[in-house]
Amino acid sequence: MPYYQTWEEFARAAEKLYLTDPMKVRVVLKYRHCDGNLCMKVTDDAVCLQYKTDQAQDVKKIEKLHGKLMRLMVSKETHSGSMEME
User: Fold this and answer.
1) SS3 for 19?
2) pTM exceeds cut of 0.85
3) What are 31's strand-pairing partners?
4) Of 2, 22, 67, 71, which has the maximum CB count within 10 A?
5) How far is residue 10's CA from residue 60's CA, in Å, rounded to a whole number?
6) 54 burial level (CB within 10 Å; 0-12, 13-18, 19+)
């Protein structure tokens, strides 16, 4: 499971994966204090997308994407439209 090198690629791939089948996608955030790394994993058991960072400015981006995915997961609307990354 390789890690994405750029945030933009990861965010687009995570959005695309979620929109293909929202009922199968899981999102995991993991922080390791000893390493100072934050890892975000988005998977549907067939495809696994991962992004790892130790930069403080990336935390806000991860938090924003995570919030958008969580809002989509709990909404009762159909997910036919694409998420807009601000």
Assistant:
1) helix
2) no
3) 38
4) 22
5) 15
6) exposed
